[in-house]
Structure formats: structure tokens, C-alpha cells
Specification:
- By secondary structure, the chain is of the alpha+beta class.
- About 20% of the residues lie in helices and about 25% in strands.
- The protein has helices at about 25, 45-55, 125-130, 150-165, 175-185, 265, 270-275, 325-335, 385-400, and strands at about 95-100, 105-115, 130-135, 135-140, 145-150, 200-205, 220-230, 240-245, 280-285, 295, 300-305, 310-315, 340, 355-360, 365-370, 375-380, 410-414.
- The strands form 2 sheets. Strands 8, 9, 10, 11, 12, 13, 14, 15 and 16 form a 9-stranded mixed β-sheet that branches. Strands 1, 2, 3, 4, 5, 6, 7 and 17 form an 8-stranded antiparallel β-sheet that branches.
- Helix 4 (about 150-165) crosses helix 5.
- The relative contact order is 0.15.
- The model is unreliable at about 1-10 and about 10-70 (pLDDT under 50).
């Protein structure tokens, strides 16, 4: 699954200076109705995406979001932080984006607000029945100071797929992408310098309306917040150690394992916590029917390398269609590898040359060992595998603007 790890707490140790938070001085001045935000065209690959995942989506949502073309000087000056010590924990930034939808199914009047707590009715659908989705994507700063987003329209499409499964309306692709752009630009001083990390972008879609009986919520909120981040795993680009879970299963056929709903992640916390207590980095899950085919790690897709063949579990409803997964498959094919999306038996790990994970947070994470029924299989003598390094370098250089984007995957903003 695409890396959707929950932030591991609020990290304020990186901050050297806490600027004034006077809302009247720092809030942007929003446009009036006759100066609505101008949406730039988005090149969509929706038909290919939906064909790949065999899902049909229909939409009638429209956008009336407004925002400002100008921000205070706070948004332009780089935040005074120790960028070298970034981990993967929440660092509060300046602005978040909010947009609501009522029963008519149309989102409108999106706006930037100061980052902070939100108010929810205790009977909100997301609190009582878990009617919520989230996404994760990143923004990188280029050497010329401009900012690159990586495939934001894919996240928008995936949120729409998940919303259909969870009986929720969703922003259009254009609404989603433009909201992401506005949020990043409003927090541009929090985008780490080139090579120091990225700005993690977390869109949320939740049933915010009050509902007592089991039913779809009468109101929905789309929210985006951001945080500068470094490496997800403390090892960085270094081999991680996985353990295969044999008693707990992440998803079932016909369930919600293939969409990015919030409940998918709470259910893995117990097994993940137990694994980390034993010294493992994370958990690799098997399918719940045959109990022998690989599915995914808690927050990542998994790939197995043997010779020139790279295999990964096929998307069949229990595995999240990761955007990094999809991108790595294309990059690998372009580099001459044979990529197979199929059932991958756990036994194939025993003689694999390499194993690696992919996700938004980790990008590519090489696996140093996997433990299964007390048998530990190691890869690469605790070194990063050649294929893992090759694919990681190719994708991150593209994401950071260090190489030509022949795939038309990045969106540049300034």
C-alpha cells in the first residue's frame, strides 16, 4: 500500500524560533467572489488508472474555492530549522486548507486557515463509524527554488475511488490538485532545502456531519495539512528488517484493503507494535485465504527481485494501488527489467536476490532480512541492493527535478 503512516507524534525539537502567530497579521486576504481561484488544466491519466484498477467513477462535483495570490512575508522566508535532523514526525506549519460539502454532493468555498485544531460534533460520522479517507504525497524544492509536486492527480483519483467505496462525495481532480498547490504555496517556507527532505502533504476526507444511526454523514470536510519530513524509517536508505505475520491479516476479499480508508491502519498497529518491540522495523502480511501469498507491509507495497525479474503482488482488492508502486513499475520497465504483477508466494523470499518496499514516505526501502516462522533470510550482506539503489536513485532524482521528467509526472509551482 502506499505509505500512509500515521505521524508518530508532534515534533517541536527541530524549531529554533517560534514566530509570532497573530492571526490578524498573518492570515491571507481571500479573494471576493469575483476573483475566484483560476484552475490550471490538469493532464489526467484517469482512463489508464481506472482500467488498471478495474473501477468506474462518476462525478458531478464542482469547485468554488477561493484563495489569495499573495501571502505575508512569513510564507517566503525559509523556516529557521535544523533541517539535518528531520525525521518523520509532525512539525506544525502555518496554514491548512478546508472545504466542505453538504448533502448536494458539491464541494465549494475552500479556504486556507491557520493550522490548528478543528471542531467536530461527537456524533460525526468519522468518529462513530470511521467514514474517512486520507492521502499522502510530497513536495520537493528544486535547486532553482521552485517546488515540484509528484503526480498529485493520481492521489486525487485514488481518493475518488476510495470515496465511492466509503459512500462519500469527493473533490474533483482539479479541486484536489489546486487545493494541494494552494496549501504548499502558503507553507512554502516549510519546504526543506534541496536534499534535506520534503514537505509531506496529508489530504483528509471525512464525514464531519452528525449522525447517530448507521448511515452516511450529512456533511463532509476535505482538509489538507503539511509537515516537513525526513526519512520514514530511522535506518534511512538502509536495509530494514521485516517479520511475517501469521496470525493477523491486514485485509479480506470484499473489504476495504484496496482503498485508503482510515480503519485499515488502526488494525495493523497491534502487530506492528509487537514486531517493533522485538527489534523488527515492520510487518509483512500474507493473504487471509491461502495464508501463503505476500500482500503488503503495514504502510508499503513489496517487491521481490530475482535476476532481471521484479515481482510484486497484483492489485486484487486487498492491496492498495500505491502511486509509488505504480511509478517504480514504470521506471523498472524503462530500465529493462521484466516486471510481473501476480501472486507471489512466501517461499519465493527464500531464494530472492533482493526485496524492497515502496511508498510515498519511504520511496524505496531495501529489505535486509525477513523472518518467517523463526527462520531468518538475509539479503545483500546488510548493504543496499543494486536494484533497490538503482530504482531509488532514478525516482528520487526525477521527484527532485535533478533529471528530465520524460514521464510528465511532476507539477512545478512557484
Amino acid at each position: 500500500m502506499e505509505s500512509g503512516a500515521v505521524f508518530s507524534g508532534v515534533n517541536t525539537n527541530h524549531l529554533r524560533h517560534n514566530p509570532s502567530r497573530n492571526p490578524s497579521a498573518l492570515l491571507p486576504s481571500f479573494f471576493s467572489d469575483d476573483k475566484k481561484f483560476s484552475f490550471s488544466s490538469v493532464k489526467l491519466r484517469k482512463q489508464c488508472y481506472l482500467a488498471l484498477n478495474n473501477v468506474k467513477v462518476e462525478s458531478s462535483s464542482r469547485c468554488d474555492a477561493t484563495t489569495s495570490k499573495t501571502y505575508s512575508n512569513e510564507t517566503s522566508a525559509l523556516s529557521d530549522m535544523d533541517w539535518d535532523s528531520l525525521g518523520f514526525a509532525l512539525i506544525p506549519t502555518d496554514y491548512m486548507y478546508m472545504m466542505k460539502c453538504s448533502q448536494d454532493g458539491r464541494f465549494s468555498n475552500g479556504e486556507l486557515k491557520r493550522f490548528g485544531n478543528i471542531e467536530l460534533n461527537p456524533s460525526a460520522g468519522v468518529l462513530n463509524y470511521g467514514q474517512g479517507l486520507f492521502e499522502g504525497l510530497k513536495a520537493y524544492k528544486k535547486l532553482d527554488g521552485n517546488i515540484l509536486l509528484f503526480r498529485p492527480e493520481e492521489n486525487a483519483l485514488r481518493m475518488r475511488l476510495g470515496a465511492e467505496r466509503m459512500c462519500m462525495p469527493a473533490p474533483t481532480v482539479e479541486q484536489f490538485v489546486e487545493a494541494v498547490k494552494a496549501t504548499v504555496l502558503a507553507n512554502k517556507r516549510w519546504v526543506p532545502p534541496p536534499g534535506k527532505g520534503s514537505l509531506y502533504i496529508r489530504p483528509l476526507l471525512m464525514g464531519s456531519g452528525a449522525v447517530l444511526g448507521l448511515a452516511p454523514a450529512p456533511e463532509y470536510t476535505f482538509l489538507i495539512y503539511v509537515s516537513p519530513v525526513g526519512n520514514y524509517f530511522k535506518e534511512g536508505l538502509a536495509p530494514i528488517n521485516l517479520v511475517i505475520e501469521t496470525d493477523v491479516y491486514r485485509a479480506t476479499p470484499g473489504g476495504t484493503g484496496g482503498v485508503k480508508t482510515i480503519g485499515n491502519y488502526a488494525s495493523v498497529l497491534k502487530a506492528q507494535t509487537a514486531a517493533k518491540a522485538k527489534g523488527y522495523s515492520d510487518v509483512l502480511y500474507l493473504d487471509c485465504v491461502h495464508k501463503r501469498y505476500l500482500e503488503e507491509v503495514s504502510s508499503c507495497n513489496v517487491f521481490v527481485v530475482k535476476g532481471n525479474v521484479i515481482s510484486t503482488p497484483e492489485i486484487k482488492g486487498t492491496i492498495l494501488p500505491g502511486i509509488t508502486r505504480k511509478s517504480i513499475i514504470d521506471v523498472a520497465c524503462n530500465q529493462g527489467f521484466q516486471v510481473e504483477e501476480r501472486l507471489v508466494a512466501v517461499d519465493e523470499l527464500l531464494d530472492a536476490d533482493e526485496v524492497f518496499c515502496t511508498g510515498t514516505a519511504v520511496v524505496v526501502s531495501p529489505v535486509g532480512s525477513i523472518t518467517y516462522h523463526d527462520r531468518r533470510v538475509s539479503y545483500g550482506n546488510s548493504e543496499v541492493g543494486v536494484v533497490s539503489q538503482q530504482l531509488y536513485s532514478a525516482l528520487t532524482r526525477l521527484q527532485m527535478g535533478l533529471t528530465e521528467d520524460k514521464m510528465d509526472w511532476t507539477v512545478e509551482i512557484s
